[in-house]
Write a structure and sequence with these properties.
Elements lengths: L2 E10 L2 E10 L10 E7 L6 E4 L1 H10 L2 E2 L1 H10 L1 H13 L4 H88 L10
Helix pairs in contact: 1-3, 3-4
Length: 193
């Protein structure tokens, strides 16, 4: 019986979440498994990986074969490196303290890389938001300028019409005064009656 470390798909459509399981190679993808050792969510950026390190290492030492994707996940979490270092200790290449020192150095470097990626993503998201706000402000300023220009034109047109109306009224009043002066009698308007 060949034992594999592989992914079992869970979650809904287009929002996949995978369980990292140890299963018989003959069982279906989402079928029976021997043990669940972790969770993998590729939807987030960076991908969310929860892994029981000791169980995964134990199964690898027992001879379980990871699939390609699981191999990448285990490599990312350092399980394969730890297995490799422990085999070096068994062969006598170096002692366990040296293996732990190398593993700790690698984990620190890996965590730094992951944090750099997260901060880079946050920074790019903040820059994208700032650029979008800047573009919207530019559009809003252009709209406000256009609106102010239109309102100024309407105000100028209204003041011109008002001035024209005032001029007509003044002209009509002047004509009325001239008629009164010419006849000496006040002119009766239909409105006064």
């Amino acid at each position: 019986m060949a034992v594999k470390i592989r992914l079992a798909r869970k979650g809904r459509k287009k929002v996949a979440i995978y369980h990292i399981v140890v299963a018989d190679s003959r069982s279906p993808r989402d079928g029976r498994y021997i043990e669940k050792i972790g969770l993998y969510s590729p939807v987030t950026n960076p991908a969310k990986i929860e892994l029981n390190f000791d169980k995964a290492l134990g199964w690898l030492q027992k001879g379980a074969l990871p699939t390609d994707t699981c191999r990448a996940i285990l490599s990312n979490k350092g399980v394969l490196l730890k297995k490799h270092l422990l085999e070096g200790v068994k062969k006598g290449a170096f002692d366990e303290a040296e293996a732990d020192r190398r593993f700790d150095a690698w984990m620190e470097q890996n965590e730094t890389k992951v944090e750099a990626k997260k901060s880079g993503l946050e920074k790019s998201a903040a820059e994208a938001t700032a650029n979008r706000i800047k573009a919207e402000k530019k559009i809003n300023d252009a709209r406000a300028e256009k609106l102010a220009k239109k309102q100024a034109e309407l105000a100028a047109k209204a003041s011109a019409e008002l001035a024209e109306t005032v001029a007509e009224i003044a002209e009509a009043a002047a004509e009325t005064e001239q008629e009164e002066d010419a006849t000496g009698v006040p002119v009766e308007n239909d409105a006064q009656e």
